[in-house]
Amino acid sequence: MMDSMAATGALDGLEFRFDRSISGNTFDAHRLIHFADTVGQRAAMVERLFAAYFTEGEAMGDHDTLVRLASDIGLDGTAVRDMLLSDAYASDVRSDQARAQQFGIRGVPFFAINERYGISGAQPAAAIVEAHTKAWNESAAVSD
To answer: How far apart are CA 110 and CA 97, in angstroms?
Structure first.
């Protein structure tokens, strides 16, 4: 499965280095994503976390690592550390987890499209575009 995911990613210019990946609890990384969202940096934070985990072999459960990664995208390190030492955004992450359970998500990556379609696992870009197009066409037909 890892080889398949790496090959699929390579087709789209992504480098997956599973030999470097460090397993761990990602709860605080998810809280950090919510924090970054409050300053319009959600996408940048997700992108940085993905690169750090899948390519660079960074530990997603380590606060020092998370502070450094957040600083990489311009977030204030002191504010990030303060957030990580609190329980801020914990309820948001728990809500995300409950929503994932409702979708039947058992792994990542997982893409929920229009609260109706789910794409699980590393899929070629064309498959994701096809699902978005289908969801778009269906929503356009409903609004006509």
So the answer is: 12
